[in-house]
Every structure is written in C-alpha cells, then in structure tokens.
Automatic annotation (TrEMBL):
The name this protein goes by in its record: Response regulator receiver domain-containing protein
Keyword check for Phosphoprotein: yes
Classification lineage: Bacteria, Pseudomonadati, Pseudomonadota, Alphaproteobacteria, Rhodobacterales
Keyword vocabulary terms for this entry: Phosphoprotein
Modified residues (4-aspartylphosphate): 68
C-alpha cells in the first residue's frame, strides 16, 4: 500500500486508513488487539496460524503485520523474515509474544518493532505501530497519548481454555505439543493475570514426571473452564 495514497489520519484515530493483519493463536490476545486496532481507526484481520496467514497474504496485502512468535504450526519469526524481505514491503512488521526472550528472534528476523504481551494499552498499541511509519503518515501536530486500556474478554478466554483442554486430551502423551502448549497457556495466563495457571504452564516442560505435570495443568484448566 502506498503511503502517499492515504490522507493524514486524525489524532484520535491515528491508524485510520491502515489495514492490519494480526497473526495470533490466542483469542484472548487477539480480541484485545482487535479492539485497540478498531479504536485506533485500523481495519483488522486475524489469522490463527501460519497457514491462515499465508492464505490471507495470497489475496490481500495489509499495511501492518503483527505476528506472534509462538504459533501452533511453527515460529512466527519465519513469517516475519519473509515479510521483511518481500517487495514491495509491508509498511510495518511487528513481532509479539508473551515471552520477553522472543524479542531477539523477532528483531533478528527483520521485525521493525516488538510488542510484549499482554497488549492492553491503547497508547502502547498505537505507538508500537506509529513509531515505524514515515513522518507523512503520522497525525499532524502534537498528540496526547490515550490512557484507555482493554480488559480480557471472558468469551475469548473460554475459547482459549477449551483449545488447551483439547490439546491436553490427546490420545497419549506423545501427541501433546508440550512446548507449544506451555507457551500458549502461559501467554493466556498473563493476559488474564492468572499466576497459578502461568506457573503450571511454565513448569510443564521440566520438573516432576510428565504425567504428573500434565495432570496438574489439566486440573487447573478444568477449574478455569468451570469458573468461566
């Protein structure tokens, strides 16, 4: 998309005219960023994994791509690297993750910036994109940073927990994607301020025998589903 073809956006909707592809598997994180994008004036599309993102990109070129590093079918860093090298290039490519250590992978792949999840602040979301747009694409004049924040969506959380329960209910331990499940649930827990779930998810890859860790995590997930 050519920057000069988009009029300067107003200060209260600084992403007006931008289209954003959000590649994110967590519906909790996705719903928060969708609301932030809409409030900023952007048009949003979501892909839940790399395969869906590729299908979108075959027929549509967004202005901005926000790519989660941990996805169910691979690393978002690979998609970031491809988008960063593409010609013509998407205006802004941003990595995101609930794991602060993923920032290095995103930036090495060619991302313009990185947003650490949870992303629930309108100011953080807007500045994470605006900082990488050219001056002519910025709102004119001084702009006060918005103080708005969004909270976790209960329906999105319920869907994320159901997804985790499905993964935990695999026919045997060998079919459970331990590394992916650990980072997915840890990210969902951070979005919702759930330290117990985050702790159980973070220790899934090490510690007690695997059956005990899986049983502990499955119990916490079922408790959260019942509460939701």
């Amino acid at each position: 998309m050519d920057t000069y073809a988009i009029p300067r956006p107003p200060a209260d909707r600084p992403l007006l005219g931008r289209t954003v592809l959000l590649v994110e598997d967590s519906l909790t994180a996705c719903e928060a960023m969708r609301l932030l994008g809409v409030r900023s004036g952007a048009r949003m599309r979501r892909a839940g994994d790399l395969a869906q993102a590729e299908r979108h990109l075959r027929v549509w070129r967004p202005s901005v791509a926000i790519v989660d590093i941990g996805l169910p079918d691979g690393s978002g860093a690979a998609l970031i690297a491809r988008l960063a090298r593409a010609e013509p290039r998407i205006e802004v490519v941003v990595g995101t993750s609930g794991d602060p250590g993923a920032m290095e992978a995103a930036m090495e792949a060619g991302a313009d910036g990185f947003m650490a999840k949870p992303v629930n602040s309108l100011a953080v979301f807007q500045e994470g994109i605006l900082a990488h747009l050219p001056p002519e694409a910025q709102p004119p004049g001084p702009r006060a940073l918005p103080l708005d924040e969004v909270g976790p969506d209960p329906a999105a959380l319920a869907d994320d927990l159901a997804h985790a329960a499905d993964l935990l209910g695999g026919p045997d331990e060998g079919t459970i994607p331990i590394a992916y499940l650990s980072q997915f649930l840890a990210s969902v827990a951070r979005e919702n301020g759930d330290s117990a779930l985050e702790g159980a998810a973070a220790t899934l890859a090490a510690g007690d025998p695997l059956p005990e860790r899986l049983a502990r995590l499955a119990g916490i997930v079922q408790d959260r589903i019942a509460a939701a």
